[in-house]
Amino acid sequence: MNKFNKIVSLWALVIFVSSCASVSQYQTAKPTGEGKTNIKITVNGNIREDGEGFPPFIPEFGINYGVTDKFDFICKLNSFGSLSFGGKYTLNTDDKFAVAVGPTMNYFGKIINATIPLHITIEPNELFSFTITPSYTTPGAYKLKESANTYYKQINGGFFSFAPYLVVGKKVKFIFGSNISFAKSSIYTDYGFGINFQF
Questions:
Q1: Which residues lie closer than 8 Å to 88 by C-beta, 6 or more apart?
Q2: Which residues contact 40 (CB under 8 A, 6 or more apart)?
Q3: 36 exposed, middle or buried (CB, 10 Å; 0-12, 13-18, 19+)?
Q4: C-alpha dihedral over 138, 143, 146, 150, to 10 degrees?
Q5: Ranges of residues in the chain whose predicted pLDDT is under 70
Q6: Topology of domain 3-198, per CATH?
Q7: Among the residues of the chain, which ranges form H helices?
Q8: Maximum Cα–Cα distance across the chain
Q9: Strand partners, 174
Q10: Which are the contacts of 83, defined by CB distance < 8 A and separation ≥ 6?
């Protein structure tokens, strides 16, 4: 099976497992490695500026597939109705420090936009890594109706985000992350935790 067929098969598997991915990053700058697969399973919640939101019960499935030693194919889906896919390219290969760019296309209901992140990872040892990801999400491709929910209209307007992400463990890694999004007139915080394993 060639690389392209593997990528398509992995993406189809994720779509089959869940009907829908979040705005949470859940990425380190480290590459997965050519021919290797990294799977993340998390539960996520959301807090809005007005105190509304939901607890961490939204499942998310994410896959990174190492197309080359520096480039990953990325796909994320969650049951809240969000899908994103794209790529991540690691700019350097230092063992303890890495920087990567990883643009993705996002589909969330009637919202279609793109996220352009910069992942900066510090990994002092193989048991622990910490990543900071500033990012910009473009305005949606389509204008929403005036009657649309305020949250969706805010997200559709484009926003900057800041995402800290912690990974602890060796073979099976425990992950903790959040994504603070600064929309036009509101701040939204997505957060979650889960596991990450590679084969």
A1: 27, 31, 64, 71, 72, 74, 100, 101, 102, 119
A2: 26, 60, 61, 62, 63, 64, 76, 175, 194, 195, 196
A3: middle
A4: -20
A5: 1-25
A6: Porin (2.40.160)
A7: 3-17, 150-156
A8: 51
A9: 168, 195
A10: 20, 21, 75, 76, 77, 106, 107, 108
Contact 181/159 with Cβ under 8 angstroms? yes
pLDDT at 150: 78
DSSP-derived pairing of the beta strands 159-169 and 128-137? antiparallel
Domain boundaries, the chain: 3-198
Contact 31, 74 (CB under 8 A): no
What does the pLDDT read at residue 10?
45
DSSP state of 142: S
Contacts (Cβ under 8 Å, ≥6 apart) of 170: 126, 127
Q: Measured in whole angstroms, how far is the alpha carbon of residue 193 from the centre of its chain?
A: 12
CB 143 within 8 A of CB 186: no
Cβ-proximal residues to 7 (8 Å cutoff; 6+ apart), any chain = 65, 67, 73
- What count of residues does the chain have? 199
CB 41 within 8 A of CB 195: yes
